[in-house]
């Protein structure tokens, strides 16, 4: 028999919270954890018991600090999914899993194609893709699945256009990416899906080397692969990162954002009546409120650091829930209210610091043009399912719909 406090067995670690009670909001467990002093410990698949960050200020501190490594081989790095295990075992060197200065060296090859200026110049092309997808939606007889007709096609067509990937192959790469990202795929299933995608992109890259076009993969192949600065494996990893990051995330935002507006008619009316500045702010609020990056940001401390009054030791893991920090009342007034007029710009939906989203200007432009055009052309759009019947992805790295049934009247143009 032991006295309380004897033996100092640590309290049991939590499972990473996944149970949602509202389709648009993070699991309520995060709100409870945010109120607790210090940092709770969470179960990892491998890599000990990482500490979980749910407060906004703590997240900014970790994401802005060079004392945290994003590499799989840093001692204490927490593996949270089969896909993490597969990538660690196969030594996949993705941009997201490197540290500065190597990370910046790799990232600099890509930044010029994703600047605000470059994306602004693409506005007419992106508008054309949005218009085409809405034409396809309206070709249906008054009702359709928004995910298959609009939410996936828009960002997929745009990223295909930019990278120089044939959109005709979208069935193949969308299925492969979905299998690689699903939380319930085994490491072998992830490996097979990524292997197929890799073979496909390797063949495409060879074609770009033979016959370069005006697209990002051709430019990267000509500038870095042909002179031997990177090898084909690295080139394929870059192509895969850009392709997969480019459609799955924005597709989730389109689906969830549409449903959120349709269940908040007063916010939708404000958006439709508003000028472009308000509409841009609405996109920031959608990003904050929905925070689709459900899978935690993962790091390992390389020195002792104090976070939220708690000392994280070198060799310990840290997880950050972006959905949780974007609902922190210390950073956003009345955080659980969807309000497109609030100042939302400082949200962390694209993360923060050196690994913040490379494609954020592109995602913002796609979302702005989509919502503007959708509500102008299809004012009678409505949901066919009640929120409790929504067909949401289960245990996926990013939150979103599998399908979403919508309907409209003859008023649509
Ligand atoms: C990184 C979110 C769209 C490319 C990230 C990260 C987040 C994020 C949270 C940080 C990852 C981490 O630290 O683990 C989003 C959201 C999007 C979106 C919410 C849509 C609304 C895009 C698009 C692209 C893209 C359209 C197109 C190329 C990338 C890349 C990184 C990244 C390459 C890695 C950056 C680095 O490690 O330096 N994104 N993203 N994302 N995103 Fe996005």
TrEMBL record:
SUPFAM superfamilies recorded: Cytochrome P450
Entry keywords, A to Z: Heme, Iron, Metal-binding, Monooxygenase, Oxidoreductase
Compositionally biased tracts (Basic and acidic residues): 86-100
One Pfam family from the record: p450
Positions of the UniProt region annotated as Disordered: 1-36, 74-100
GO molecular function: heme binding; iron ion binding; monooxygenase activity; oxidoreductase activity, acting on paired donors, with incorporation or reduction of molecular oxygen
InterPro entries in alphabetical order: Cyt_P450, Cyt_P450_B, Cyt_P450_CS, Cyt_P450_sf
PROSITE patterns: CYTOCHROME_P450 (PS00086)
PANTHER family: CYTOCHROME P450 YJIB-RELATED, P450, PUTATIVE (EUROFUNG)-RELATED
Family, as annotated: Belongs to the cytochrome P450 family.
Name of the molecule in the record: Cytochrome P450
Organism: Streptomyces cacaoi
């Amino acid at each position: 028999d032991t006295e309380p406090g004897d033996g100092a067995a640590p309290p049991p670690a939590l499972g990473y919270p996944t149970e949602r009670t509202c389709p648009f909001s993070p699991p309520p467990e995060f709100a409870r954890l945010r109120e607790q002093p210090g940092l709770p410990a969470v179960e990892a698949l491998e890599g000990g018991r990482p500490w979980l960050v749910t407060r906004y200020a703590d997240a900014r501190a970790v994401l802005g600090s060079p004392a945290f490594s994003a590499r799989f081989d840093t001692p204490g790095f927490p593996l949270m999914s089969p896909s993490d295990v597969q990538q660690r075992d196969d030594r996949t060197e993705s941009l997201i899993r490197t540290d500065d200065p190597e990370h910046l060296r790799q990232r600099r090859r890509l930044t010029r194609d994703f600047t605000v200026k470059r994306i602004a110049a693409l506005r007419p092309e992106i508008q054309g893709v949005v218009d085409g997808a809405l034409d396809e939606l309206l070709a249906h007889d008054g009702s359709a699945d928004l995910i298959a007709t609009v939410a996936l096609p828009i960002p997929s067509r745009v990223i295909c256009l930019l990278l120089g990937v044939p959109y005709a192959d979208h069935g193949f790469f969308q299925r492969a990416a979905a299998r690689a990202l699903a939380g319930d795929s085994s490491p072998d299933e992830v490996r097979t899906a990524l292997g197929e995608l890799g073979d496909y992109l390797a063949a495409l890259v060879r074609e770009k080397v033979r016959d370069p076009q005006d697209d990002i993969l051709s430019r990267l192949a000509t500038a870095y692969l042909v002179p031997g600065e990177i090898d084909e494996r690295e080139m394929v990893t870059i192509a895969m990162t850009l392709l997969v990051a480019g459609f799955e995330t924005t597709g989730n935002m389109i689906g969830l954002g549409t449903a959120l507006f349709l269940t908040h008619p007063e916010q939708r009316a404000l958006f439709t009546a508003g000028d472009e500045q308000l509409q841009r702010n609405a996109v920031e609020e959608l990003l904050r409120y929905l925070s689709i990056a459900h899978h935690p940001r993962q790091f390992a401390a390389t020195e002792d650091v104090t976070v939220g009054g708690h000392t994280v030791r070198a060799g310990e893991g840290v997880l950050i829930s972006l959905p949780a920090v974007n609902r922190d009342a210390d950073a956003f007034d009345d955080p659980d209210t969807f309000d497109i007029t609030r100042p939302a710009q400082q949200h962390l939906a694209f993360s923060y610091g050196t690994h913040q989203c490379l494609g954020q200007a592109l995602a913002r432009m796609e979302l702005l043009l989509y919502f503007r055009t959708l509500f102008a052309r299809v004012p009678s759009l409505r949901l066919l399912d009640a929120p409790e019947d929504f067909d949401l992805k289960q245990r996926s790295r990013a939150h979103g719909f599998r399908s979403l049934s919508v309907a409209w009247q003859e008023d649509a143009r």
